[in-house]
Amino acid sequence: xxxxxxxxxxxxxxxxxxxxxxxxxxxxxxxxxxxxxxxxxxxxxxxxxxxxxxxxxxxxxxxxxxxxxxxxxxxxxxxxxxxxxxxxxxxxxxxxxxxxxxxxxxxxxxxxxxxxxxxxxxxxxxxxxxxxxxxxxxxxxxxxxxxxxxxxxxxxxxxxxxxxxxxxxxxxxxxxxxxxxxxxxxxxxxxxxxxxxxxxxxxxxxxxxxxxxxxxxxxxxxxxxxxxxx
Length: 230
Prior knowledge:
The protein is an all-alpha fold. The chain is built from eight helices and no strands. The chain has a single domain (about 1-225), classed as Glycerol uptake facilitator protein (Up-down Bundle), CATH 1.20.1080.10.
C-alpha cells in the first residue's frame, strides 16, 4: 500500500508544480499585460516539470520507483519489470493523484478555466493536427520511457537516475509544449482535463492512448533489442 500512496503523492506533486507553473505564467502575462518571450515561458514550464520529477525521484523513489506516470508503469509491465497487480495499483493511484493535483490547482487559482491541460488543433499553440499530435506524443513518450528503462537497468546508476530522468523530461517538454503542451503522461493529462471539461476532456483520449503506445514500443525495444542480458 505504501508504494501506491507514494505514486499518488508523486503524481499530485507533478501536476501541482508542473501544470501549476504553466497556469501561473499564463495568468501573470494575462493580468499584467507583460510580454514574455515564448521560448522563455517554455523553458520555465519545462524545468518545472523536470525538477518536479527530480524532487519526487529522491523523495519516493526508494518506495515505489517514482513512476508517477501510467506510460512508465506500462513500459515496466511490458518489459517484464512489474506485475499486473502492481501495474493496476500504480495506475489507479496515479490517476487519482492527477485528479487531486488538479483539484488543488482549482483551489489555488480559484478557477478551473485553465489547469495546464493538453490539446491539439485549436487547443494547441501551433494548431497541431490530431495525427501529428498523436505522433509527437508517441515519439516523446518512447524516448522518455526508453531512457528510464535504460538508466534504471543498472544499479550503479541509482544515485543519478532521478537527475537524468528529470533533465530528460525537461528536454522533452522544451520540444513538445508548443505542439501539445506535452503530456507523455496519461494521469498528468486526465486530472486537469476532467476538471476543465469541454474541449480538454474531449481530446484527452489522445493523451492517454499515445503515451501508452509510446511506452509500450519503448519497452519492446529495450527488452528485445537493447538489453545486454543473455
